[in-house]
């Protein structure tokens, strides 16, 4: 075991223009903070009120940047974690004092990132510097809200829903949370994505002290496992870094919290009080029992508080006179924490199977393999919830059968395509010439009537297209193509680019019933493989002439809604219809509630009348219970049913109002997108110069709406490459910030997409 050491305690003062210089003084060594209060003269001449306090800490961070805070507080803890030492960094303090800013920082600005993202960066940077070790990094994100445990990363798509609630479990290896998802991260960007995902799921609320107050305790844990690549020894080291962002303590008189926020504040203050009791017990060497199990927070941090880890506390305080009482309380907590000692030790583990000889299993028989194949197919179809695993041999066979099923599905898709289409190599000029003679493609290798990416059959036929048998063949091909697209669904339409001879490896052509195209291909291949490309059509396609003056926007808008914007317009109309229907239902529910309320009032009056008559006539009792007549009893039952109905209708009305608000949001979004898409289409259709129209035509490198009108460039420029280089050199934080911003952008895109899709699905379902 390692030697015992005291917990490091730091104080960070929130910057303010109203700093209490007369009451708060810093020592010259930046390790002492003195508090002075004036005596309260209202207490009289004999006044033993304490007016001066002095606190000795490891460092006072005043007007400190995020860089300085991390270098001072966390860098050593994180670096030792890769050597096998556990670490805990905790932020404590009054609500609004800057705990979350210190721990997480501002995700909008790379320079203002906090301890947590910087720790992730340091871990992956140190991994790059240790090529002799295979280091695995996993992360988890736990939230403790109102004494309940929540997984902030449960929204990840590969995390299944939890059936049982999470619980805190202890074993000889330490404390862990049963049911908490742990995520493998192979690169820095993945870790940032998980961090941002968890941050969006945190519970916050607003009160007078802080408009974005964290209403829960959060623990982000980084698990590290390091194995030597050069040594075959079974020994390896593990460690974990707990980064704890505590919810802020608050005086209810100052925050003026009420309702749900008041309940949250009560739970927060209670858990922080239990945390302080545990710290006091840990600092008292004579205490045998430490009350870790009083609340979920102290229980989850049992092996971090006074355990075998490097412990660091950052106490966040205000520098204002109005908050001096809370500042004193926070500094007392920091002083008590400095009395706690820990005993950091390397976590060495031994792999029992490192030098173990391989076990050879007998191969499965055909019946067993067939049964596993059947289970895999039923699992993929959704008729089987899970596959029961008995031994390692079965696991290997399950994966093998997954590969077999996938291969069979690929072969079925390929055979289906081959039945419908004929593959043509783009270098087979004889085959291309034959297809052109059949009237299926023009001289440029494009399909006759080539689609423009929005639908089928919107292209322009070349001059060589003539009526007769070839036209019929072309029509047959078009119908096959459309029917194939309908069968495969709108999610994967065939585009002109996929069927372009000049840009793709192969060309798909229809297999006609009479086989005339196939016969022609065979004849041309037999006669000559070097026949030059033949086409009597010019290479210029006919395009509708652009009007000399752009049409009026109202007229163009109607055309846009019927053509290119038809899908958005359809969704807009559907959402508006749903919104109107919800409004109508809400109005009807309101009328029913009013009618029920009137009936409740009438029933209460009748019941009071019956009660008064009973009291006048004299009450009868039996075994201590008042006896009422049948009419009064029926009124009581009726009143109970009416109240129940009233509550149900009122709940329905609340739900409908929420739906109306959400549907209104969707309608506004669709309207905005419809108008935005129309502006893009209008500008590109009537204002783009003629010499740049080729870049916007179907099959070009730029599709309408990809970029603003003023930013259209030529086909030869590699915009993605230029953007990548620009991103690497000019981002606010330099090249190191690329992963940070990439993860942030991906997270925002993902949540916007999921929110919109879920909203549309719910709206359509309702």
UniProtKB/TrEMBL annotation:
Gene3D superfamilies: Kinesin motor domain. SMART domains: KISc (SM00129). PROSITE patterns: KINESIN_MOTOR_1 (PS00411), KINESIN_MOTOR_2 (PS50067). It is found in: Cytoplasm, Cytoskeleton, Flagellum axoneme. Residues 513-528 have a biased composition (Basic and acidic residues). Residues 456-556 are annotated as: Disordered. Residues 6-340 form the Kinesin motor domain. The keyword Nucleus does not apply. InterPro entries: KIF6/9_C (IPR056524), Kinesin-like_fam (IPR027640), Kinesin_motor_CS (IPR019821), Kinesin_motor_dom (IPR001752), Kinesin_motor_dom_sf (IPR036961), P-loop_NTPase (IPR027417). GO terms for cellular component: microtubule. Residues 579-606 form a coiled coil. Its main location: cytoplasm. GO terms for molecular function: ATP binding; microtubule binding; microtubule motor activity. It holds the Pfam family KIF9. Keywords: ATP-binding, Cell projection, Cilium, Coiled coil, Cytoplasm, Cytoskeleton, Flagellum, Microtubule, Motor protein, Nucleotide-binding, Phosphoprotein. ATP binds at residues 93-100. It comes from the Eukaryota. Residues 501-512 have a biased composition (Polar residues). GO terms for biological process: microtubule-based movement. The keyword ATP-binding applies. Essential for normal male fertility and for progressive motility of spermatozoa. Belongs to the TRAFAC class myosin-kinesin ATPase superfamily. Kinesin family. PANTHER family: CENTROMERE PROTEIN E, KINESIN FAMILY MEMBER 5A. Interacts with HYDIN. This is Kinesin-like protein. It comes from Moschus moschiferus (Siberian musk deer). The gene is KIF9.
């Amino acid at each position: 075991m390692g030697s015992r050491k005291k917990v490091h305690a730091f104080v960070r003062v929130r910057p303010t223009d109203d700093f209490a210089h007369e009451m708060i003084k810093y020592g010259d060594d930046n390790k002492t903070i003195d508090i002075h209060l004036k005596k309260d003269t209202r207490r009289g001449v004999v006044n033993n009120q304490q007016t001066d306090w002095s606190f000795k800490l490891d460092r006072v961070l005043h007007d400190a940047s995020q860089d300085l805070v991390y270098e001072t507080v966390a860098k050593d803890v994180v670096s030792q974690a890769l050597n096998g030492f556990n670490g805990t960094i905790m932020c404590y303090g009054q609500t609004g004092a800057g705990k979350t800013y210190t721990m997480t920082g501002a995700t909008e600005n790379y320079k203002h990132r906090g301890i947590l993202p910087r720790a992730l960066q340091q871990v992956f940077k140190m991994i790059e510097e240790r090529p002799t070790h295979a280091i695995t990094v996993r992360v988890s994100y736990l939230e403790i809200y109102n004494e309940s445990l929540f997984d902030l990363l449960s929204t990840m798509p590969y995390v299944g829903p939890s059936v049982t609630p999470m619980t805190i479990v202890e074993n000889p290896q330490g404390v862990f949370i049963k049911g908490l998802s742990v995520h493998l991260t192979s690169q820095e960007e993945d870790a940032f994505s998980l961090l941002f995902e968890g941050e969006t799921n945190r519970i916050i609320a607003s009160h007078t002290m802080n408009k974005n107050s964290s209403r829960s305790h959060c623990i982000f844990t980084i698990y590290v496992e390091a194995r030597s690549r050069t040594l075959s020894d079974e020994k390896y080291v593990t460690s974990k870094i707990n980064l704890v962002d505590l919810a802020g303590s608050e005086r209810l008189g100052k925050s003026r919290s009420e309702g749900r926020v008041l309940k949250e504040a009560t739970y927060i203050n209670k858990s922080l009080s239990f945390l302080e009791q545990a710290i006091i017990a840990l600092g008292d060497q004579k205490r045998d029992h430490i009350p870790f199990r009083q609340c979920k927070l102290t229980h989850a941090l049992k092996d971090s508080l006074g355990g075998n880890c490097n412990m660091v506390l950052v106490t966040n305080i205000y520098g204002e006179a109005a908050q001096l009482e809370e500042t004193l309380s926070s500094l007392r907590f920091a002083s008590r924490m400095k009395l706690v000692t820990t005993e950091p030790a390397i976590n060495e583990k031994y792999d029992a199977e490192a030098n173990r000889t391989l076990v050879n299993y007998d191969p499965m028989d055909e019946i067993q393999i067939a049964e596993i194949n059947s289970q895999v197919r039923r699992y993929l179809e959704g008729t089987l919830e899970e596959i029961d695993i008995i031994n390692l041999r079965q696991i290997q066979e399950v994966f093998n059968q997954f590969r077999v099923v996938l291969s069979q599905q690929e072969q079925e898709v390929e055979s289906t395509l081959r039945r419908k289409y004929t593959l043509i190599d783009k270098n087979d000029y004889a085959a291309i010439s034959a297809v052109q003679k059949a009237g299926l493609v023009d001289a440029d290798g494009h399909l006759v009537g080539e689609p423009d990416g929005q639908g089928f059959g919107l292209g322009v036929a070349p001059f060589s297209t003539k009526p007769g048998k070839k036209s019929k063949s072309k029509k047959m091909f078009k119908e096959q193509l459309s029917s194939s697209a309908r069968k495969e669904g709108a999610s994967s339409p065939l585009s002109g680019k996929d069927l372009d001879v000049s840009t793709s490896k192969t060309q798909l052509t229809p297999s006609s019933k009479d086989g005339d195209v196939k016969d022609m291909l065979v004849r041309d291949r037999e006669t000559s493989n070097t026949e030059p490309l033949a086409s009597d059509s010019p290479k210029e396609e006919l395009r509708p002439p652009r009007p000399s003056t752009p049409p009026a926007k109202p007229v163009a808008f109607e055309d846009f809604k019927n053509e290119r914007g038809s899908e958005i317009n359809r969704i807009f109309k559907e959402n508006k219809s749903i919104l109107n229907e919800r409004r109508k239902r809400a109005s009807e529910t309101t009328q029913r509630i009013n009618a029920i309320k009137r009936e409740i009032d009438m029933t209460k009056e009748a019941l009071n009348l019956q009660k008064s008559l009973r009291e006048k006539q004299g009450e009868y009792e039996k075994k201590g219970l008042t006896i009422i007549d049948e009419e009064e009893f029926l009124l009581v039952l009726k009143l109970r049913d009416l109240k129940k109905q009233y509550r149900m209708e009122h709940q329905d009305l609340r739900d409908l109002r929420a739906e109306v608000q959400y549907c209104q949001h969707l309608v506004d979004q669709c309207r905005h997108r419809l108008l935005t898409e129309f502006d893009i289409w209008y500008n590109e259709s009537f204002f783009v110069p003629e010499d740049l129209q080729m870049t916007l035509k179907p099959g070009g490198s730029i599709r309408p709406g990809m970029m603003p009108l003023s930013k259209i460039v030529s086909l030869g420029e590699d915009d993605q490459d230029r953007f990548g280089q620009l991103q690497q050199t000019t981002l606010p934080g330099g090249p190191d910030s690329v992963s940070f911003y990439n993860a942030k952008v991906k997270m925002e895109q993902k949540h916007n997409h999921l929110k919109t899709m879920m909203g549309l699905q719910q709206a359509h379902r309702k």
